[in-house]
Design goal:
Elements: H1 2-34, E1 41-46, E2 59-64, E3 69-73, E4 79-85, E5 88-95, E6 101-109, E7 114-116, E8 129-132, H2 152-157
Parallel strand pairs: 1-7, 6-8
Antiparallel strand pairs: 1-4, 2-3, 2-5, 5-6
Length: about 180
Amino acid sequence: MERSLSSVVVFTGKYFLRLVVLALVCVGLNSGALLAQSDLGTISGFVKDPSNAVIANAKVTVRNESGVERTATTNESGYYSLTNLPPGLYTLLANAAGFQEYESNGNKLDSSANLVVNPTLSVGASTQKVTVSASAEALQTESASVQQLVTRSQVDALELNGRNPIFMANLVPGTG
């Protein structure tokens, strides 16, 4: 009788171990679904002076057309990062003591994109302002990801050969 009781305990232990392993495998397989993509983006960069030296404790503010405004202060390396920003056109303001205020208009942030803007502050009174209009499209060297915003008009104009929605993947850069 004692022998059969110990075999039941061993069987229960093996069963429990298998159940735990199965649960861990299921959680591991579904963890990719938990990392859903967001439509919010990030604006970041380094604030520098004309000699290319970084400026610590500079105040950086971004504002979009719908009134969303975020502010950050650069760290000791002159780096700032403003996260969870909705897509749109942004105005970036940067200022620090002893430097002219920097303003950059027309910075386009696409959904789930990382936009890098590196302001260069000119030496001068803080009452003076330097305005940069229509910033140039910068080459993203921080990551190898390819990003593009697909507009509704592009989706409507897309010819679907055989009406197969799989061909929508041809909108992604590098696939066509």
